[in-house]
């Protein structure tokens, strides 16, 4: 999961960085740094995001982003 996907998942659900921080158990500042690609996503945060949103939703978001990068949608 890269920074773009991480941010897209949060925004697609209308969540704030603070809300995602509560879910993942880290600070909103760290969420911001991850989204700006200034910090790597830890395994703990990655697992929390996967558990909360589900693998299928994350996969769908990844496909959507890839299609848009390549001009598919």
What does this structure look like?
The protein is mainly α and 73 residues long. The chain is built from five helices and no strands. It has helices spanning 3-12, 17-24, 28-35, 43-53, 55-69. Helix 1 crosses helix 5 and helix 2 (17-24) crosses helix 3 (28-35).
Task: Kindly list the characteristics that best describe this protein.
5 helices; globular; mainly alpha; 0% strand
Count of DSSP H/I helices: 5
The run of helices and strands is: HHHHH
Mean pLDDT: 93
Into which percent range does the helicity of residues fall? over 70%
Helix/strand-derived category reads: mainly alpha
- Poorly predicted regions: none
Shape: globular
- Give a quick account of the main beta sheet: strands, pairing sense, barrel closure: none
Q: How would you describe the oligomerization state of the chains in this entry?
A: single chain
Beta-strand portion reads: under 5%
Terminal-residue CA separation: 21 Å
Task: Tell me how many strands there are.
Answer: 0
Using only C-alpha atoms, the radius of gyration works out to 12 Å
Give a short synopsis of this structure.
The protein contains 5 helices and no strands. It is mainly α.
């Amino acid at each position: 999961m890269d920074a773009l996907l991480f941010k897209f998942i949060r925004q697609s659900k209308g969540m704030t960085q603070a809300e995602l921080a509560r879910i993942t158990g880290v600070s909103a500042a760290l969420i911001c740094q991850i989204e700006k690609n200034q910090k790597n996503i830890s395994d703990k945060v990655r697992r929390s995001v996967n558990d909360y949103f589900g693998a299928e939703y994350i996969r769908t978001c990844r496909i959507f982003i890839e299609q848009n990068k390549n001009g598919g949608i």
